[in-house]
Write a structure and sequence with these properties.
The chain is of the alpha/beta class. Helix content is 27%, strand content 26%. The chain has 10 helices and 18 strands. The strands form 4 sheets. It has a 7-stranded mixed beta sheet with strand order 3-2-1-4-5-7-6. Strand 10, helix 7 and strand 11 form a beta-alpha-beta unit. Helix 4 runs parallel beside helix 5 and helix 9 runs parallel beside helix 10. The protein starts with 26 loop residues before the first helix and ends with a strand. The mean pLDDT is 94. The chain binds S-adenosylmethionine (SAM). S-adenosylmethionine binds next to helix 7 and strand 11.
């Protein structure tokens, strides 16, 4: 076990990528831990929110760690050999906490939802210490912490990171999330949790993709990186006999997809599978006939097409021979050549000013 408040230099990112040199913590983790080391006492019950790869969770023994991200939960588990209690839903907060340590997310809706749920699980005087990298910070975080928690003070910036401090002095409030969002082509509004992609309205890329969902027969369809599930649900609407698998690394995405699927297809025969996972790592080879994918272009704060490429490799593995992967992306992302590398073929089947829809067949 590490001494408390130290970052284990062996800490690794998950998924482990050969040749990747990126460090698994940043200066915000370092200054958070340096601050905690100087506190007289952390109190008995500590909650960590939004740890990325385990730097905080492993350095604060006995704390509970909340993350919406499968990749973070796996990193914490991999680095900490299950020594840390990790929870993945906001409903899993069980206070009252003495101290809450937060990595401020870029998504302020998610921060607001988290703070509102937290307001029921803290007591007057509960301390909050939040850390962020200056380049990722949205100023609205201060306003939200003031609104839901209490008056804020801040540290000096160090190594381009900074802390926000507050003591709880408000009362319990209801969260404004999830949202009920109307979707073109659906009578019922969709349930969108606060950390779901394009939570306030249908994304314009997704809208274009929905116009190009193929008609089968497909025994099994995979919605890879499903968000609120609108792609897989639309595929089910036009392929009523297909079984749909939804995967996402965000717990809130899957919870939204499941709520939306069950509301639209309440019959037991319309079953579907929901997997909180990395891409579709555990998918059996040759078990899927159609994969639909609108890939992410970042993992957390790291931007790039590496997640897309891992998704293409998983899609290739799980597709049956002759099976189809259909992908949408911004034209500048060059998915046709990335897909050719994995599948040996690719074809642009539709495009508009901004997006391309690209097919690849498992040979
Ligand atoms: N399919 C939805 C749509 O078209 O509206 C969402 C698409 S959004 C561009 C990409 C989705 O991939 C997000 O929901 C994100 O949480 C998910 N994602 C990101 N990294 C992932 C990973 N490593 N494994 C699985 N899902 C991931």
């Amino acid at each position: 076990m590490n001494p408390p408040f130290q970052i284990d230099p062996k800490l690794r990112r998950y998924p482990v990528r050969t040749g990747e040199l990126l460090q698994a913590w940043d200066a915000a983790d370092e200054i958070l831990l340096a601050h905690l080391a100087g506190m007289a006492s952390l109190g008995k019950k500590v909650l960590i929110i939004g740890d990325t790869f385990g730097a905080l969770s492993l350095a604060i023994p006995g704390a509970t760690s909340y993350t919406d991200s499968f990749l973070s939960a796996e990193a914490i588990r991999m680095n900490g050999a299950n020594a840390v209690r990790v929870v993945n839903r906001l409903e899993d907060f069980h206070g009252p906490y003495d101290l809450v340590v937060v990595r401020v997310p870029k998504n302020l809706s998610f921060l607001e939802d988290t703070l509102a749920r937290l307001s029921h699980q803290v007591a007057p005087g509960t301390k909050l210490v939040a850390g962020y990298m200056l380049k990722h910070q949205a100023n609205g975080a201060f306003d939200l912490i003031e609104k839901y928690f209490g008056a804020t003070t801040t540290s000096l910036a160090k190594k381009k990171a900074r802390l926000i401090f507050a003591d709880f002095e408000r009362g319990p409030v209801s969260s404004p999330y999830p949202l009920a969002v109307s979707m073109p082509g659906f009578e019922l509004p969709f349930v969108n949790h606060s950390n779901v992609f394009s939570r306030e309205r249908l994304d314009i890329g997704t809208r274009f993709f929905l116009e190009h969902i193929p008609v089968g027969p497909f025994a099994t369809i995979l919605d890879l990186g499903c968000g609120n599930g609108v792609v897989g649900i639309t595929a089910k609407k036009i392929n009523l006999l297909s079984r749909v698998i939804f995967t996402d690394e965000s717990r809130m995405a899957l919870d939204s997809a499941e709520a939306n699927f069950r509301a639209i297809f309440p019959s037991a025969t319309d079953d579907a599978t929901f997997r909180w996972t990395n891409a579709y790592t555990e998918g059996r080879p040759e078990s899927v006939d159609l994969v639909l994918c609108n890939p992410p272009f970042h993992q957390g704060a790291t931007v790039g097409d590496f997640v897309a490429r891992e998704m293409f490799a998983d899609a290739h593995r799980v597709l049956t021979p002759g099976g189809l992967l259909r992908v949408i992306g911004n034209t500048h992302l060059r998915y046709p050549s990335a897909l050719r590398n994995v599948f040996g073929n690719s074809e642009v089947v539709a495009s508009n000013a901004k997006f391309q829809i690209v097919d690849a067949i498992k040979l």
